[in-house]
Amino acid sequence: MKNKKHIVEEPLADYKKAEEDLLHKALSSSYTERFHTMARMMKMNIMLKSAKVVHKKMD
């Protein structure tokens, strides 16, 4: 009997293409869109900076 490997082969992700697509999208946005994105990120940073993680022990 021949050696058969039963390995599921996942298709390789094309990270380089995805990165190029994101870069192209970011560069094609207007200055107003970039400003609004940056303002949203700054607001989120302020909100998360003051966040407090609270947890309870599980039984």
What can you see in these coordinates?
It is flat, with a radius of gyration of 23 Å. It is mainly α. It has helices at residues 15-27, 31-49.
What is the compact description of this entry?
With 59 residues, the chain is an all-alpha fold. It has helices at residues 15-27, 31-49.
Series of H and E elements: HH
- Choose one word for the global shape: flat
- Give the oligomeric state: single chain
Q: What Rg is obtained from the alpha carbons, in whole angstroms?
A: 23 Å
Q: Helical percent range?
A: 40-55%
Number of strands: 0
Quickly give the structural class.
mainly alpha
Roughly what fraction of the amino acids lie in strands? under 5%
Low-confidence stretches: none
Which key terms come to mind for this protein?
59 residues, mainly alpha, 54% helix
Walk me through the topology.
Layout (H helix, E strand, L loop, with lengths): L14 H13 L3 H19 L10
